[in-house]
Design goal:
heterotrimer, A alpha/beta (about 350), B alpha+beta (about 350), C alpha/beta (about 325), A: alpha/beta, Rossmann fold, five-stranded mixed beta sheet, B: about 350 residues, alpha+beta, Alpha/beta knot, 2 domains, about 25% helix
Chain lengths: ~350, ~350, ~325
């Protein structure tokens, strides 16, 4: 039975259902209970934006606040995973990855390989990303390309409540380390989500919209922007196929290539900054593997190569817009300047 | 006033961080704390007119902490009437990081003609210093764990009292002749203990500090203070004896309830109270030599397992005169009587 | 390694004494042999030798079972051997062979065997302490009496990860023991310079944990203190810091000319402080073991090492296709 819930609630539900099913799933991070040992409520916050509310009392001993000490507790997640738990650690903002990156990319990501296949590290790091709430440069980044780059890690970026629940359940059940990116602007968005638990496979893209003229690959919040752009472009007779990879590692290259085989045109929309990002990664792969099918060069729509600015006017100019997406599609489609209508 | 009076300072970096932190309630006495005490001692010495202090080049970081504190002191605002600190000189000696360093330091201090040695440490440190100091009086300050021998005394006043002794203004009654225990094991050179000698069944010295009550068969003490912490408290709680009063005690202990005449609960280490069975005890007179029961195991001197005794090795213990120590209270009472702290002329 | 905890009085049985000696001798021979073989140029990459420090690995690991975990440093062979990792498989790993403990994928700096509770040598200074906090959490959640021990150097004791781990272990009351092997040099820098003359043991006070310092050349001192620390952790009383003062015989890495050390420093150490010599002398003088028991062990260890090196040198290289294996459980 599906019903409409928010992206945030979908995540909470995924955590609760997996904790119910598997006693080795534990959740920890800064303020995930949000008041442990404080004079008032032990779980006053339930996460800085309330995403983990309610879990503390339901699963005593398995939801833990941590000191502000990422390298210790993210490293502890790796050690706990290697010794029999399924930890879900929260890195509150992905912008904080600098203080615990070693634990993620040199320890957790590499145990299985370095130890000759004799280790498994079934951990999840949930983390918030994305610009749009005026949180400025140290709380607004989209750093998944860095994790995508690291062999040994998996990366998931749900765009909808349905994807959020299914991908998180899959992430928790996955025996490899997963970095799970939750877009902070999407928390309040609503969508139909089945009540029962379900897992969405990694490496399987979602064809959000079928179309025959241009393949638009979009990530995270950009998926809904691409949908808006596609509606506007329909009036101009341009039929977009929108593909949401859902996971950047593993990446469903096959679906993208099949689509480009059909449309011959590619636009990749990625909120992250342009150098060494998903846009350049996907564009390069398509150029290499589907060159013969391309009727126009692939186009990348990204943020500029700058930190995220604070002032609302500036932040709104930083994030790709529906207009910048439609302009890129038109260019690829060979339509030149946008129609007057 | 004796010109050019020199005082030695021995501050043991290694004291105060042994296994009793884990098994009892002791906390770590760190280098910064010890450096602070040395600084205060120097302030007191300086006020008493001592110009030079000699110290072992400290191993393990105490020097660095001390240098920082001295620098801070030198650059701080001068108080009205403050006296300069004595200049602190490092003895020219290599370090091995063992107790031999303290012995060597004391030998060099004697050769340099110091009139007093201020010691910061526990029973173990003082024991080592006492082996080498001859009749140079010691100002015994506690920074170790059990501290039956040295006292917990604020460094400034200790420095002042030590300085008055060093400059010949302490009067009679300033010094105490302590007792000690001379331990002879086979042909080896005799060892010295200032507080207690314990025979333990543990075959190896292990983590040194002796804190287990079981397996201990004999206890000899040079002082029986009922308020002490450590094995000597057994003697003190059986029959208190005044310090430096010319008598010690020999106690036989047992783990066998049938053999024990009585069982005491005593503070063997900070935070650690344990039951010990007493089979018998008697006082020891000065000069009296006692042969221990045959056996093997460890000999603990002043609470630290020091010697591994092999089967067949013969051990005797004798109560002997020990080092001279400064009675700080007596010195300060005398100083008050003779106005030793009056300044001529009064400061502007 | 023996799984029986020592009796209350702290006395070790003859079997336990011989096992301790065997562990230390195996580590010593392994490292000395590597020193020789490395000089021939046949061993790829970096090795960091533990010779001189054996009493620490042996003294601590004597109290651990296969269910307990250790996390090590780049200087990890000693901990691996003391924790029960297969010596021949370790040697093959260092030679990069397919028969190696990690199938040649890790090498000296990443030697590990999770089945024996060895979370790995670690190429990142300070990488271990957070991992053992994690194992401590596992023990707490699963309500076992497992203990997790990390080994870090004096250099590593300045890393944020180490200090954060002490704090986390104290906050969560984790069954961890943090061992610091203060071997006098953080690469080429002595503690007088890299620590402003601080006591590492005293750092524990700052986190509300007990800190103890022992002579790392003395097996019995390490064994006794480690026993209390492990007992404390297992009983649920929490974590502690054990600082073992020692010196390493070889350089930071093989190839290090060590000109930062005093002339004859190592020669004097080998002559006066060697942990194996001291152990052998004390246990034979105490009548606890015969000299022949020890020399039997020496012989069998040497034979084992000869075989290990020969088998490693003759061992098969991994197939090139193995570059791609074991990145993930399933991709």
């Amino acid at each position: 039975m599906a019903r409409e819930i928010t992206y945030q609630t979908a995540i909470n539900e995924a955590l609760a259902q997996e904790m119910e099913r598997d006693p080795t799933v534990v959740v920890f991070g800064e303020d995930v209970a949000g008041g442990m040992e404080a004079p008032g409520e032990d779980d006053a916050w339930g996460g800085v934006l309330g995403v983990t509310k309610g879990l503390y009392h339901k699963y005593p001993g398995r939801v833990l606040d941590t000191p502000i000490s990422e390298s210790a507790y993210v490293g502890a997640a790796a050690g706990a995973a290697a010794s029999g738990l399924r930890p879900v650690a929260e890195l509150m903002f992905v912008d904080f990855m600098g203080v615990c990156l070693d634990q993620i990319f040199n320890q957790a990501a590499k145990f299985r390989y370095m130890f000759g296949g004799k280790a498994k590290t079934p951990m999840v790091i949930r983390t918030m990303w994305g610009a749009g709430i005026r949180a400025a440069s140290q709380h607004s980044q989209a750093l998944y390309p860095i994790f995508t780059h690291i062999p040994g890690l998996k990366v998931a970026l749900p765009a909808t409540p349905y994807d959020a629940k299914g991908l998180l359940i899959a992430a928790i059940r996955d025996d490899d380390p997963v970095i799970f990116f939750e877009h902070k602007v999407l928390y309040d968005t609503k969508g139909d989500v089945p009540e029962e638990p379900y897992a969405l496979p990694f490496g399987e893209a979602n064809i959000v919209r079928e179309g025959s003229d241009v393949t638009v690959v979009a990530l995270g919040r950009m998926v809904s922007f691409a949908q808006e752009a596609a509606e506007a472009l329909e009036d101009d007779g341009i039929d977009c196929e929108i593909i949401d990879p859902r996971t950047t590692s593993p990446l469903d290259e096959d679906t993208i290539l099949e689509s480009v085989e059909n449309t011959g045109r590619l636009v990749v929309v990625d909120e992250a900054s342009p150098r060494c990002g998903m846009a350049s990664d996907i564009a390069a792969r398509v150029a290499q593997d589907a060159f013969a099918d391309l009727k126009a060069p692939p186009r990348m729509v990204t943020a500029p190569h700058t930190p995220v600015p604070f002032s609302p006017v500036l932040e709104d100019a930083y994030v790709p817009t529906v207009e910048s997406i439609t302009a890129a599609v038109r260019e690829t489609a060979g339509a030149g300047a946008p129609s007057a209508a | 006033m004796a010109q050019d009076s020199r005082v030695g300072i021995v501050a043991n970096p290694a004291s105060g961080r042994d296994i009793r932190r884990l098994v009892a309630g002791a906390s770590v006495f760190g280098n910064a704390d010890k450096a602070g005490i040395v600084l205060r001692v120097l302030a007191g010495l300086g006020a008493a007119g001592v110009r030079t202090a000699l110290m072992m080049p400290a191993f393990d970081g105490l020097s660095a902490a001390l240098e920082r504190q001295l620098h801070a002191h030198a650059t701080a605002e001068r108080h009205h009437g403050a006296a300069p600190l004595p200049s602190l000189e490092a003895l020219p000696m290599p370090l091995t990081g063992t107790a031999a360093d303290s012995v060597r330091a004391v030998e060099l201090m004697r050769a340099a003609g110091v009139s007093v040695i201020v010691v910061l440490g526990g029973d173990g440190t003082h024991r080592v210093v006492a082996k080498a100091c001859g009749d140079i009086p010691l100002c015994a300050l506690s920074t170790g764990t059990n501290n039956a021998f040295p006292e917990v005394r604020e460094g400034t006043v200790a420095g002042l009292a030590a300085g008055l002794v060093a400059t010949g203004r302490a009067g009679d009654g300033a010094l105490r002749r302590e007792l000690a225990l001379a331990v002879e094991l086979g042909d080896a050179e005799p060892e010295l203990a200032l507080v207690d000698v314990i025979l333990s069944a543990e075959p190896f010295t292990g983590a040194r500090a002796l804190w287990r009550g079981s397996g201990v068969s004999e206890l000899f003490v040079a002082c029986a203070n009922p308020s002490a912490v450590g094995f000597s408290s057994i003697a003190g709680l059986l029959q208190p004896l005044p310090r430096a009063g010319g008598r010690g005690m020999h106690v036989r202990l047992t783990d066998d309830p049938a053999e024990a005449h009585l069982v005491l609960r005593v503070p063997l280490a900070p935070g650690l109270l344990a039951a010990v069975g007493v089979a018998g005890f008697r006082t020891l007179e000065l000069g009296e030599e006692v042969a221990t029961a045959p056996g093997s195991g460890c000999l603990a001197l002043d609470g630290e397992r020091e010697i591994e005794r092999r089967p067949g090795e013969h051990v005797t213990v004798r109560l002997v005169p020990g080092p001279l120590t400064i009675d700080v209270d007596a010195v300060m009472r005398h100083a008050a009587r003779v106005n030793a702290t009056r300044m001529h002329p009064p400061p502007e | 390694m023996s799984t029986v905890a020592p009796p209350e009085t702290g006395q070790l049985t003859k079997e336990q004494l011989l096992e301790a000696y065997r562990v230390m001798r195996t580590i010593r021979e392994f490292e000395e042999r590597l020193h020789t073989e490395f000089a021939t140029g046949e061993i790829p990459g970096f090795v960091h030798l533990y010779a001189g420090e054996e009493a620490i690995a042996a003294g601590v690991c004597a109290h651990l079972t296969p269910d307990d975990y250790v996390a090590s440093t780049h200087r990890g062979h000693g901990h691996a051997i003391a924790k029960g990792c297969d010596v021949k498989a370790m040697m093959a790993e260092i030679y990069g062979r397919k028969t190696g403990l990690c199938h040649g994928k890790g090498g000296s700096m990443h030697i590990a065997d999770l089945a024996k509770g060895m979370l790995g040598a670690n190429g990142i200074v300070g990488g271990g302490p957070p991992l053992v906090c994690g194992v401590g959490l596992t023990a707490r959640v699963k309500q076992t009496d497992q203990v997790a021990v990390s080994f870090t150097g004096d250099g590593g004791s300045n890393q944020g990860t180490f200090l954060e781990s002490l704090n986390l272990a104290a906050c969560w009351n984790l069954p961890c023991v943090f061992v610091i092997e203060d071997n006098g040099y953080a690469e080429s820098t002595p503690p007088a310079f890299h620590q402003a003359g601080v006591d590492i043991a005293k750092r524990a006070d700052g986190f509300g944990l007990p800190g103890v310092e022992v002579d790392g050349f003395d097996f019995f001192a390490v064994h006794e203190a480690a026993g209390e620390a492990v007992r404390r952790a297992r009983s649920g009383a929490g974590a502690s810091l054990l600082v073992c003062k020692v010196m390493r015989y070889y350089g930071h890495f093989e190839g290090d000319q060590q000109t930062y050390r005093g002339a004859d420093e190592v020669k004097e150490l080998r002559r006066t402080r060697d942990c194996l010599d001291a152990f052998a002398r004390r246990v034979t003088e105490a009548g606890a073991v015969e000299e022949s028991d020890l020399s039997d062990i020496d012989e069998s260890v040497r034979a084992l090492l000869d075989e290990a090196v020969a088998e490693a040198q003759a061992g098969p290289h991994p197939g090139v296709d193995e570059v791609l294996t074991d990145v993930y459980v399933k991709y």
